[in-house]
Amino acid sequence: MKTDPVAFSAFMKEMKAEYECEKFMEGRSMTSSTVADERSDDDPRYTIEPHNEYMVAAKGMCKRERPKKVFLVCGQEPNYGNGGEWIISDSRAITKQMEPTVLNKFKALETRYEIYYPTKAKASYNCWEENIAPTKEEAEAYLTRAGCDWTWNEDDSILIHRNLPCVAEHPQTGEVLWFNQIQTHHATFYKDAHPDFVDHDESIPWPVHTKYGNGEEIEEDTLNHIREVVWANTVAVPLRLGDLLVVDNYAALHGRMGFSLESPRQTFVSILYE
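-> structure tokens emitted (274 positions)
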């Protein structure tokens, strides 16, 4: 595969790819129309836990809330002795190994995904004016179409939330599989892993968080169990220059190992709905 992002974008357009919504979970723009996006801007020092690509704020905005395929092209490979591998997890094995009590509770209550954005004047990480829309009226219109609820705070920050199921039916096989971002969207992901939040003021909400759909906090033991099952069914994939990795977004989770700041890495990504 050519590593020119323009060529990759043209290739994906031929395959009818759409990248109408950026990864909401990572606080990026919700309104990007880029078909192929560069994935070298995440801080390399932390590991992105395995997750399904899932558009929380996508209802009415994309043809599907759940992409079928994720395409990853290696534009520059790092020194794999220092990390940087893509990681892939087996959704079927995860579903089978998840404790029935955990699985059934999430099935019954769903998961509440919360996203917090300060206003631009007070932002140190992300803000709603750049990630959603420049005015409150436009932001509310977008979130209404996206099927989200929200609360404006006195300091003009916004807390967005939406309840979503923990499983999804595979479009080809009909299997009901573990499909969510419960642990990767939870505040512990930032608290325990993200270097920019080591000294975070806990009186300020975390950028993202998950709860049970009824608003209850998810137990620490439950989060630990989810992470243990996911990582037990995960393998590393060291892509070489020009390699194309196609991930079935229902049958597999994907993520990225942290890597050294001295070992540059570049990946281009796109998603396919059909």
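The chain has one domain: 5-272.
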